[in-house]
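quick one
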Amino acid sequence: MSQSSTPPIEGIGFTVPPELRDVLDRVRAFVAEDALPAEAEIPDLNEITGSWDVIDRLRDKARERGIYAPHLPEEWGGLGIGVLGMSLISQECGVTPIASLGLNAMAPDEGNMHTLLMAGTEAQQERWLRPLAEGRIRSCFAMTEPDVASSDPTNLATTAVRDGDEWVLNGRKWFITGAIGAEIAIVVAKTGSAERASHRDYSLILVPTDTPGWEVVRDPGLIGAHMVGGHPEIRLTDVRVPVENLLGAEGEGFVIAQKRLAGGRLAHAMRWIGVSQRALDLTAERLEEREAFGVPLSKHQSMQWFLADSAIDLYASRMMVLNAAWRVEHGLEHRQEVAMVKTFVSEAFGRILDRCVQVFGSHGMATDLPIGQWYADARAARIYDGASEVHRMTIARTLLRYTRNGESTAAGCGQIS
Ligand SMILES: Cc1cc2nc3c(=O)[nH]c(=O)nc-3n(C[C@H](O)[C@H](O)[C@H](O)COP(=O)(O)OP(=O)(O)OC[C@H]3O[C@@H](n4cnc5c(N)ncnc54)[C@H](O)[C@@H]3O)c2cc1C
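structure w/ flavin-adenine dinucleotide:
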């Protein structure tokens, strides 16, 4: 808990570390010259699977530019870039949903690759990480369930029971991003027998989606956040997989899942910043172009305030993500910071897009134009990867722990010591 291990910081400020500058330049060029023009080749960005050839071509371009799968170690075909570098890359990629896909660094595959790297055996890595890293297959992460409040993971009811040399899984999952067309699922299942489950009663199990008993039941239409492979509901009925499909140690499911989450949450936050920045740029242009009551909209003070408030939100968001990423990269305590980042940036994303809709007027409400689409995307950000209320609960708990120990809460509020 104590943050006294923080090394002294010389100077306050952020510059891009020299070793990342060249990579970032190449990512920017990839986004501007390859990804943004390719958007026009995809008739419906909500149906990217139908235009997968475009993504494959983008991946070839990313390889040519030497920026493919930047999050993976070099021996897996990547660049070995850490959380801070990935946060900066995600910000650049956020301007279009196909840029991160083009780098093969998009959720849920990115997080699943990290999980396999962290917890997979050599055989599991060869079988599943290899084709994921090469972009030959897709994956999904199946935790949330329709029947229980999944914010509290000890509610999860899907079971995996040992039967000889197999695990037998039964249960229901939903909102499983990318599950349609995914070849492998990492399923969170209860392996402990305690009736009142604790965090240590859950494990991760690798389930190939062609295993009998794995069934996509339906794909609910969603407000925004459309992704490759939908967010379907899955039924698992006597799904049998070999015992070797346990990923990591039995009972370690949430320990492993927690480790994958920090980088994923920061990358999401940076992508939201990228989208917000693009929306704000379009909004500023709109204010200059359109006139009302004899002057450009940009001359009306209330319109200017929309811009200013969004700039303030973006500035705070960027600084928070970079500081949290820096803490992760330096092996410092970071759960409090990541929870605050997830909450603040997802909500700032919503506020910024809401202002953009107002500036654009009825244009902003059209779901086939970017502002309306991003507005809808922003709503989901407050729910996935931990809902805002749950993050606030853990943030407050940490603060109260300091108080109960007779300490100031400053260390839990981003204090730099
Ligand atoms: C676009 C999208 C993609 C997703 N992708 C995936 C995926 O790939 N894999 C996966 O497993 N899941 C995925 N999810 C599901 C997501 O992780 C869950 O929706 C989320 O964890 C919340 O769980 P729940 O829906 O069961 O809500 P519940 O747990 O039922 O919560 C309902 C409400 O109660 C609030 N609440 C809960 N506890 C508290 C508390 N202590 N104090 C105050 N309020 C509280 C919550 O904040 C929420 O507002 C996705 C969801 C979305 C929207």
